[in-house]
Amino acid sequence: MPEVTIRYFAAARSAAGASSATAEAASIRDLVTTVSTDRPELARVLSICTFLLDGERAEPGTPLTQGALVDALPPFAGG
Prior knowledge:
The protein is an alpha+beta fold. Helices cover 28% and strands 29% of the residues. The chain has a single domain (3-73), classed as Beta-grasp domain (Ubiquitin-like (UB roll)). Strands 2-1-5-3-4 form a five-stranded mixed β-sheet. The chain is globular, with a radius of gyration of 11 Å. InterPro entries: Beta-grasp_dom_sf (IPR012675), Mopterin_synth/thiamin_S_b (IPR016155), ThiS/MoaD-like (IPR003749). This is MoaD/ThiS family protein. It comes from Kribbella sindirgiensis.
């Protein structure tokens, strides 16, 4: 499986306790599962996030490639 980096923003960063992590995952869905195992608050926040893959919006089933950069963006209030 490819090794990728996930960057956390706002509430996701708070729930993760870090600004980023690396993990091996085949899809964004797999990545979310991997990084949130035994971390229910992070799993909750990631379940409502929008994801960007190398700067482009991506769905949970989107496949990942070696070195990909995934951004986890929780909903933001305001405008």
